[in-house]
Amino acid sequence: MTDSDESLMLRCRDGDSRAFGVLLERHHRPVFRYLLRLTGDREAAEDLMQETFVSAYEARGAYTPSGRFTGWLYTIATNKARSFARSRRRPPAAPDPGVREPEAAYLVEELRGAVCTALGRLEARDREAILLREIAGLDHAELGAVLCCSPGAARVRAHRARRRLRELLAPYCEGQTGEAQR
């Protein structure tokens, strides 16, 4: 039986550094992916992910399991990304798609570019809401805790962000549909 994140963090708070290693192993990839989508910069996402876990470890003494550990962790990650964005002040760019067949790579890059551009056109708080909800998988209560609002307001913000993203991607999707029908 595996320990819950919350019990591991409590053990870490009580001095068990190995428990934090388990949390790091469990969550470093999802936090990195979230930060990569938020920043559009692989190096920055890696640095911010490391800073997130350093801050979480340093704040272990103040941790209280009032909600899920992931909500607490993503609050730290979001704050790190906000600080980074304030210092950088430029829209995110598409990360490298990796190696694929030429046509597939082109389509993936085109779609990724359209999504990144659309995400970049969202207000920062809407971008955070949609990424925390859809990518990080936070529920509305956790989302509200990270965004400092009620769960109802978080649900509305995520819904509006999703709707705005859909609007921004509509021309791309219509263009793809039109080409497919020709």
List keywords for this structure.
182 residues; mainly alpha; Rna Polymerase Sigma Factor, Chain: A; Arc Repressor Mutant, subunit A; 2 domains; 8 helices; 77% helix; disordered C terminus
Short description:
The chain has 8 helices and no strands.
Word description of this protein:
The protein is mostly helical. The chain has 2 domains: 90 residues, Rna Polymerase Sigma Factor, Chain: A, CATH 1.10.1740; 87 residues, Orthogonal Bundle (Arc Repressor Mutant, subunit A). It contains 8 helices and no strands. The longest helix has 31 residues. The protein is globular, with a radius of gyration of 18 Å. The chain starts with a helix and ends with a helix. The C terminus is likely disordered.
